[in-house]
Amino acid sequence: MKTQECSGQKSSVARAGAPLAGAALLLVLVPLGCHAGDPAAPGSAGSGGSPGSGGSVPGGSGGSPPIGSDAGSPPSGSDAGQSATTGRYIPLSVGASWAWNGFDTLSGQSGVTDSKVEAVETLTGAKAGISAFRVRSKTLTGSTVNWQQDTGTAVVRHREQFLDATGAITSDHVFMPTKLRLDESPAHTALNASWTETYTDMAMFATPITVTWKVEAVNEMVTVPAGTFSCLRVHSVQTGGAAYDSTFWFARNIGKVKESGTEERQLTRYNIP
After folding, report:
1. CA distances from 270 to 19, 61, 187, 256, 266 (A)
2. Which of 20, 103, 165, 245 has the smallest C-beta neighbourhood within 10 Å, fewest atoms?
């Protein structure tokens, strides 16, 4: 495993409502006891992570397993990922972790946020048979736990819980069919590509939510505390639910390098197994 904790290195690579209304909508999971995720404060665009090992939950077989082997070559050395043209923009694997300096432009609150992929779990209930990475994140106001699936060409969220500073769950969201974290297909990573996503947050009375996406730049050089990376820049605007207008920078084999909008983040360190 290669661990990347760098400062000034040069590399050339890149919401929430009330609790679920009914038991039938509640997604049941059996934890496997590993680690997870990418932080996302209520009202801001989500981020993500990925697990490595963990197996399936007893009684929850079926469904396509997460694609962890397509996460691209792991960073190596102080120039890891330089000029990378292959590999995933969100490399999910158990044990992967990221940390960012965060700032909330509305509240003025700042601090360190982080995410770690804790495990692979097979979901039950409304999402029965789907294998997903459990990602746990520290936010500026508490934490989140969410379940993300790598479909091979995209990373999507199936469920997300928000927790307060004491660890108590404040809201629980199941997304139907899914909530996109990033579409990595060739058509949606090309310059000026744009598309619209619609999903339902079952914790928000099944209100349809629309998100528009646009690729604003490819191979854009971005310098953050963790180094300098060649990034894909995508702009995402959500209407309905917890509306947001955010821009994200992703680097191949690294993950989310930078975020701007309601919440601002800059990558400070990462570890991709």
Report:
1. 32, 32, 28, 10, 11
2. 165
Distance of CA 23 to the CA centre of its chain: 26
Tokens 């060739």 sit at which residue?
A: 186
What average pLDDT does range 96-123 have in this prediction? 97
The Cα 76–Cα 96 span in angstroms is 14
| Alpha carbons 57 and 125: distance in angstroms, whole number | 13
- Confidence band of 207 (pLDDT split at 50, 70, 90): confident
- 205 compared with 75, residue with greater pLDDT: 205
Query: What are the pLDDT digits (tens) for 253-268?
Result: 999 999 999 899 999 9
Radius of gyration for the chain, computed over Cα atoms and rounded to the nearest angstrom: 17
Paired residues of 231 in beta bridges:
220
pLDDT tops 60 at residue 192: yes
Token duo for residue 102: 């965060």
Number of helices (H) and strands (E), helices first, in the chain?
A: 0, 13
Q: Which residue's entry shows tokens 């999507």? A: 156
Q: How many CA atoms lie within 13 A of 32 on its CB side?
A: 26
Question: Which pair of tokens denotes residue 87?
Answer: 């590999």
> Residue 20: what pLDDT?
36
Question: How buried is residue 103: exposed, middle or buried, by Cβ count under 10 Å (0-12/13-18/19+)?
Answer: middle
